């Protein structure tokens, strides 16, 4: 899900919703399969507000890798939204899904917006989902949950990021952010879980757990790696981008998790792009082509 900010996002009267009474409960599903030396989209169910482009072959050194841009037709997520995205990569399929721009979470009094993502990576597959940051507007509540099922020889990259923004420049905080991630093997055995919760008041306060940083992100790297990631180089190069980053091993030999704090949403977007290149090279042994947005 993604939207670019436009003038309508900044002209909503204070205390009102851009879409009063909006509440959507929909599921989108995308299945990828390997055939004829390339990856094809074999099933696509993308009801409103989801939208997608056609798959692109952007990587000359990996012609079997399909890149697909996720888009939105609605201008963001709203009060009471319950959106689900189901992604599947069959045996040997290779796909990268990324958003076209950042996603706005509008104010959600008493009913947070929810986005649930299910990812299934089959044998010898590669599946990446790298959304641009979610932008939390004042009084926005957002629950992001992911369920990832990965075969032992599959490779997966999943990232998300969050930043706060007040269109009226009054430093009003969002309501609450919750994140939930569960990683399992194909037999259902648990590999790792990760959960977080942060109120907007804590985020914006003087004792914020983020310190001076105002945006945060994480990236999961699952599966066998062809190269290693140098943590010292990672720290140095991320600092040059206005970010603070660290890397940890997941339990049960599941892979890696990278954390990122950034001074602004813009710094976060640059930092997460850098992390994708770094982790892609570690998993695939090739540098990814630029994803133009």
Automatic annotation (TrEMBL):
<dbReference type="InterPro" id="IPR002669">
    <property type="entry name" value="UreD"/>
</dbReference>
<comment type="subunit">
    <text>UreD, UreF and UreG form a complex that acts as a GTP-hydrolysis-dependent molecular chaperone, activating the urease apoprotein by helping to assemble the nickel containing metallocenter of UreC. The UreE protein probably delivers the nickel.</text>
</comment>
<dbReference type="GO" id="GO:0016151">
    <property type="term" value="F:nickel cation binding"/>
</dbReference>
<protein>
    <recommendedName>
        <fullName>Urease accessory protein UreD</fullName>
    </recommendedName>
</protein>
<comment type="similarity">
    <text>Belongs to the UreD family.</text>
</comment>
<dbReference type="Pfam" id="PF01774">
    <property type="entry name" value="UreD"/>
</dbReference>
<keyword id="KW-0996">Nickel insertion</keyword>
<keyword id="KW-0963">Cytoplasm</keyword>
<comment type="function">
    <text>Required for maturation of urease via the functional incorporation of the urease nickel metallocenter.</text>
</comment>
<dbReference type="GO" id="GO:0005737">
    <property type="term" value="C:cytoplasm"/>
</dbReference>
<keyword id="KW-0143">Chaperone</keyword>
């Amino acid at each position: 899900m993604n939207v670019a900010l436009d003038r309508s996002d900044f002209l909503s009267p204070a205390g009102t919703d851009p879409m009063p009474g909006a509440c959507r409960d929909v599921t989108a599903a995308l299945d990828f399969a390997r055939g004829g030396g390339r990856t094809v989209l074999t099933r696509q169910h993308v009801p409103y507000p989801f939208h997608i482009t056609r798959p692109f072959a952007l990587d000359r050194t990996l012609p079997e890798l399909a890149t697909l841009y996720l888009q939105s037709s609605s201008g963001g997520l709203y009060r009471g939204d319950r959106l689900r995205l189901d992604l599947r990569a069959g045996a040997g399929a290779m796909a990268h899904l990324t958003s076209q721009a950042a996603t706005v979470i509008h104010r959600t009094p008493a009913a947070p917006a929810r986005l649930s993502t299910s990812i299934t990576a089959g044998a010898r597959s590669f599946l990446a989902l790298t959304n641009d940051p979610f932008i939390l507007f004042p009084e926005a509540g957002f629950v992001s949950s992911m369920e990832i099922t990965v075969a032992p020889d599959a490779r997966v990259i999943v990232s998300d990021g969050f930043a706060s923004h007040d269109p009226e420049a009054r430093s009003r905080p969002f309501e609450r952010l919750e994140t939930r991630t569960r990683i399992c093997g194909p037999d259902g055995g648990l590999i790792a879980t990760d959960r977080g919760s942060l109120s907007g008041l804590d985020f914006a306060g003087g004792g914020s757990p983020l310190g001076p940083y105002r945006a945060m992100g994480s990236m999961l790297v699952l599966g066998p790696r062809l190269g290693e990631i140098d943590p010292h180089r990672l720290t140095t190069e991320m600092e040059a981008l206005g970010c603070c980053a660290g890397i940890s091993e997941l339990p049960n030999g599941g892979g890696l998790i990278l954390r990122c704090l950034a001074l602004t949403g813009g710094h976060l977007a640059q930092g997460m792009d850098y992390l994708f290149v770094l982790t892609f090279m570690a998993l695939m042994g090739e540098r990814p082509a630029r994803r133009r947005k």
